[in-house]
Amino acid sequence: MTHVEDELTSQPECWTRAAAQAAGYAEVLPAPGERVAIVGCGTSYFMAQAAAALRESAGQGETDAFAASEFPYGRAYDRVVALTRSGTTTEVLDLLGRLKGHRRTTAITADPDTPVRTAADDLAVLDFADERSVVQTRFATTALTLLRAHLGLHPGTAVTDARTALAEPLPEGLVDCAQFTFLGRGWTVGLANEAGLKMREASLSWAEAYPAMEYRHGPISVTTSSTATWMFGDAPDGLAEQVRGTGALWIAGALDPLAELVRAQRLAVAVAAARGLDPDRPRHLTRSVILAH
Question: Which residues pair with 184 in a beta bridge?
């Protein structure tokens, strides 16, 4: 078993622990009414997108998500939350350094014994969700679970659904597809983006992601009988029929959307195995991006 396989199968237990710890981090996570930005790089950026959409749709306050390298320093925020598994990513540390003394910052990390300890004002530590694999799985979803629980939006079915996602076979013919398209709405757009990234990282697949309603505005033109189109959450009316009309394989997300992401992680590993690739060693990638100044 690869590191990434081992780590992705541990997600139900990690989510349970994170949800139980959310109340203990209430003072360092965004309070209702605060204007908040959530930042990250790569996978963490996509989790930031999901968390920001969840918080704002829940009426907790204006919430934006940015890649750490693209943060708009001219905007006023009450708190900036940085997601960083390693605690060493250059763009995140640069951002936290520039905000020091000007904006309250919280870092959610797997490794507090890193420069992020002093870079951020506050820490939420998920060390039990740290990973050996370059490809992120359990830290990302566990960080999002912490934020969902903090918002009161972590359903009891999420962990059960994650176990189902790990136990049930993948849909027949899915691994053999040549192209993968992931769709989302609202907070699940971030999950769709992350599913596409997992497929590219782990299996070098042609993978894309779009807001579901945008899929019809051009991207559906490249859909063929070798495409799998996977919906996270409820699909817009008529979209499933339109996709099936192209000959593509339509995958409806029947589980909690975060559990659907676990299924997509499994798919990435399965496609990598079918292509003779090692998902623990994705091409050109390292566990943390540390840039020379």
Answer: 211
Give the C-alpha separation, 137 to 16, whole Å: 15
Summarised one tens digit per residue, pLDDT across range 38-63 is 999 999 999 999 999 999 999 999 99
SS3 76: coil
Backbone angles phi, psi at 117, to 5 degrees: -55, -45
Kindly tell me the number of DSSP H helices and DSSP E strands found in the chain: 10, 9
Locus of tokens 């997992």 = 198
Helices (H), the chain: 3-9, 11-21, 43-57, 90-99, 116-119, 138-150, 157-167, 188-203, 239-245, 257-274
Record the pTM: 0.94
Rounded distance between C-alpha atoms, residue 139 and residue 91, angstroms: 19
User: Each residue of 203-249: pLDDT tens digit?
Assistant: 999 999 999 999 988 888 888 889 999 999 999 999 999 999 999 99
The pLDDT tens digits of the residues spanning 6-24 come to: 999 999 999 999 999 999 9
Phi, psi of 215 (to 5 degrees): -60, -35
3-state SS, residue 35? coil
DSSP 8-state class, residue 31: P
Domains in the chain, CATH or no CATH each: 3-150 (3.40.50.10490), 157-274 (3.40.50.10490)
Number of CB atoms found within 10 A of residue 251's CB:
25
Interior/surface letters 274-289, b for 16+ CB within 10 angstroms, e for the rest: eeebebbebeeeeebe
d(CA 193, CA 197): 6
Cα-atom radius of gyration of the chain, to the nearest Å? 18
* Rounded Cα gap, residues 124 and 109, in angstroms: 6
